[in-house]
Amino acid sequence: MSKLYIKGGRRLDGTLRVQGAKNSILPILAASVLTAGNTVIENCPDISDTATAVEILKCLGCGVSRQSGVITVSSDNVDNFEIEEALMRKMRSSIVFLGAMLSRAGEAKISMPGGCELGPRPIDLHIDALSRMGAVFEDKRGYLECKCPDGLRGAEIHLRFPSVGATENIMLAAVTAKGTTVITNAAREPEIDDLSSLLRDMGAKIGTDGGNMVIEGVKRLYPVVHTVIPDRIVASTYLAAIAATGGKGKLIGANPLHFSSVIAALSDAGADVRWTKDTVTVKTDGRLKGVRNIRTMPYPGFPTDAQAPLMALMTTAKGDSVFVETIFENRFKHVNELIRMGARITVNDRVAVVEGVDKLQCSSVECTDLRGGAALAVAALSADGLTVIDNVGHIDRGYEKIEENLSALGADVKRY
Ligand code: UD1
Question: Rounded to an integer, what distance in angstroms lies between the CA atom of residue 133 and that of residue 209?
Fold first, then answer.
C-alpha cells in the first residue's frame, strides 16, 4: 500500500467540488441488477469501493462500462448469483447485493462477511428481515446460501436498530416482492433517500405512513439514468481539514442539509460556517474551542463516519472535547495514532475525552480504517513537520484523489 507524506502547517485556502457519495453508489450499483437494460449512474466517486462493486457486478454477469464519473450497467445477462469470498472480504457492504440478487433471481450465495476493523458487524437484522419475506438461509461452511422456494412476499418488519444496510437490503428485496412491505424504524440516512429515489424512478412504489416505510411490490422495474448525491462525510472531512489549518475554503456541489449536525459541531467550536443550498464555506481564525457533546447517532444525529475526522480537528482546540460513539463498538482505533502525534486523548469504553494541545507533532502513523485514516490526514495538515501515513488503501476506499484535492487547497502532500 502507498503512503502519504504530509508537511503540516500550511493554511488551506481554496475551492473543492465534493465527490458522489460512497454510501449511495454501493446500494445503487446493487439496484442496477434488478432490471434488464442499461442503468446509467452519474456522479460516481472514483474510489476503490466503487471498483469492488463493479467487480461484483461483472462476476454476476453484468456488462459494466465507465467513463469518468458515469457508470453504465447492463444487466441483461445476469447468470451468476454467488459472490466470491475475496470480494466479500474486500468490502463488507457487499452484503447489500443479497437483497438485489434475491429480487432478481430468488437465490443468492455469499460468503459470511466477517468482523472488521470497527468491531463485530453482525447481519442478523438482514437475515431476520429477508426470512420474514420468504427467504430460507442455510449456512454452508462459511457460505450463506439463500433460496426463496415460494418467491419473495411483502412483510411487516420492525428493525430493533435503524440499520442502513438492512434497510437497503429489505428495500431491494421488497420492490418486486408479492404484496406490501412495511419497515418500522427504517434508517433515514440521505443515502436511503437516494436509493428510494432511484427505485421510484425505476417504477417501484415506495411511500411512507406515519414515519414507516411502505413498499408495494411491482412486477417489473425499468432502467433509468440517476445522479448520485454528494458525499456528506467527505464534505465533513474537508471542512475539518480546512479548519484544522486555520484556513478558509469553499465546498461546491455539497448538500449542507445532509450534514447539519457536523456543521453545528463546527460552529459550536467557533468556526465560521456558512452555506447555500449546494455550497458550504468555512473560515477559522485562531484556535477553536472544545466541543463537549459529540454523540454519534443514526441520521439526523451526528454521523459515526465523521467522528474520527472531527476528533482529529479537536485535538488542537482550546479545552476538552467529549466524543461518545454509540453506533460501533470499536471505532476509536485512530486514537492511538493521534496520540503518537502528541494528542491527549483518553478512552473509556465508548467515550473519548480529548484534551486540546497547542500543536501536534509529525510522526509515522498508520491508517487503521477508512475514516480513521482520513482523520490522520486532518491531523497531519496541522502538525509541525512531515507526517508519514501508511496503509493509505483504507483512505482510498472512500476518498477520491485525496492528495490532489488537498494539494489544490494548498497543502503539501505527496504519495509514494
Ligand atoms: C453503513 C455505512 C457506514 C456507516 C454505518 C452507520 C454503507 C456502505 N456503510 O454501514 O459507513 O458507518 O452505516 O451509519 O452505507 N447491526 C446489527 N445487526 C445487523 C446490522 C447492523 O447489530 O444485522 C449493528 C452494527 O453492528 C452496528 C449498527 O447496527 O453496530 C449500525 O450498522 P448499520 O447501520 O447496518 O451499518 P452498515 O450498513 O454496515
Answer: 20
Active site amino acids:
116
pLDDT tens series, the chain, 416 aa: 799 999 999 999 999 999 999 999 999 999 999 999 999 999 999 999 999 999 999 999 999 999 989 999 999 999 999 998 888 888 888 999 999 999 999 999 998 765 456 666 689 999 999 999 999 999 888 889 999 999 999 999 999 999 999 999 999 999 999 999 999 999 999 999 999 999 999 999 999 999 999 999 999 999 999 999 999 999 999 999 999 999 999 999 999 999 999 999 999 999 999 999 999 999 998 899 999 899 999 999 999 999 999 999 999 999 999 999 999 988 999 999 999 999 999 999 999 999 999 999 999 999 999 999 999 999 999 999 999 999 999 999 999 999 999 999 999 999 99
Which residue among 90, 121, 171, 232 is best mutated to probe the pocket of ligand 1, counting the most ligand atoms within 8 A of its Cβ? 121
CATH match for 22-227 among 3.20.20.70, 3.40.50.261, 3.40.190.10, 3.65.10.10: 3.65.10.10
Q: Is 152 left (phi over 0), alpha (psi -120 to 50) or beta?
A: beta
Contact 100, 172 (CB under 8 A): yes
CA angle centred on 56, ends 50 and 62, rounded to 5°: 105
CA distance 227 to 230: 9
The domain defined by 4-19+230-415 folds into UDP-n-acetylglucosamine1-carboxyvinyl-transferase; Chain (3.65.10)
Pocket lined around ligand 1, Cβ cut-off 6 Å: 23, 26, 93, 121-126, 161, 163-166, 191, 304-305, 327-328
Can you tell me which residue has the cell 445503487?
28
